[in-house]
Specification:
The protein has a four-stranded antiparallel beta sheet with strand order 3-2-1-4, covered by helices on one side. The protein has helices at residues 47-70, 77-86, 91-103, 109-123, 128-137, 142-149, 155-166, 175-188, 193-220; strands at 3-11, 18-23, 26-32, 44-46. The chain has nine helices and four strands; from the N terminus they run ββββααααααααα. By secondary structure, it is an alpha+beta fold. It starts with a strand and ends with a helix. It folds into three domains: 3-103, Winged helix-like DNA-binding domain superfamily/Winged helix DNA-binding domain (Arc Repressor Mutant, subunit A, Orthogonal Bundle), CATH 1.10.10; 108-152, Arc Repressor Mutant, subunit A; 156-215, no CATH class.
């Protein structure tokens, strides 16, 4: 089998994490530093070894791309697969990398679902029904969704939290307008009428109580 000799390995100017490989005095291909770590000038390579290097480099590209996706925030497996497919990577290589990420506990749909529910509860309250819909769209199966929602507050508590966050926006409105706007706000967050109705009344009464207290304090000054 014909062999070629590595005559030079040079760092790329635009991407220091990659190197250019020269075989028999001519540029042949580029590799990530990790894949090329065992190469050195003078080493000989047959075609099978070259193909293996290029295959490993393809995996490394997909892995690094995946790591960049996961760096800002956790993602579901479906999200990662879609983004990698959009970048044009080969399905087989994506499968290999996804399995590596799973094995390293860096891509776990159960943890993703729990964090999603926790974040929604804390910062953007919405109904369990809407969270279930969102997680299904992220590719999470029903069993993992069920487990994640066990840690969630109930809809009445979530609705109160969502309404409290929006209450200032609707200060100064009369009852009918307040009820209309707050009900629509909660409906957009997936709550049903039997949750919305008592929540709107409760928040309205609390707001009126606070307003009366402020008025009394002003009178006492």
């Amino acid at each position: 089998m014909d062999e070629k000799r590595v005559t030079a390995i040079t760092a790329q100017k635009r991407n220091p994490n990659r190197v250019n490989v020269f075989l028999d005095g001519e540029y042949s291909f580029s590799l990530s530093r990790i894949v090329a770590a065992w190469l050195e000038p003078g080493k000989t390579l047959d075609q099978k070894q070259i193909d293996n290097l290029l295959e490993k480099d393809g995996e490394e590209k997909v892995l690094q791309s995946s790591m960049r996706l996961l760096s800002p925030r956790p993602r579901s497996e479906k999200e990662v697969r879609i983004r990698l497919q959009q970048k044009g990577y080969e399905p087989g290589t994506i499968d290999l990398v996804v399995e590596k990420l799973r094995s390293a506990n860096m891509l776990r749909d159960d943890q993703f679902a729990e964090l999603w529910v926790e974040s929604r509860n804390e910062f953007h309250p919405r109904s369990q029904r809407l969270m279930r819909y969102e997680l299904r769209n992220k590719g999470i199966d029903d069993q993992k969704i069920d487990e994640a929602l066990k840690t969630s507050a109930q809809d009445l508590d979530l609705a109160l939290k969502a309404a409290a966050k929006a209450a200032r926006r609707y200060q100064g409105l009369d009852w009918l307008e307040f009820r209309t706007k707050m009900s629509a706000h909660l409906a957009r967050r997936g709550f049903t009428y039997d949750v919305i109705s008592p929540t709107v009344k409760k928040v309205w009464n609390e707001m009126q109580g606070e307003n009366n207290q402020l008025e009394n304090e002003e009178l006492e000054k």
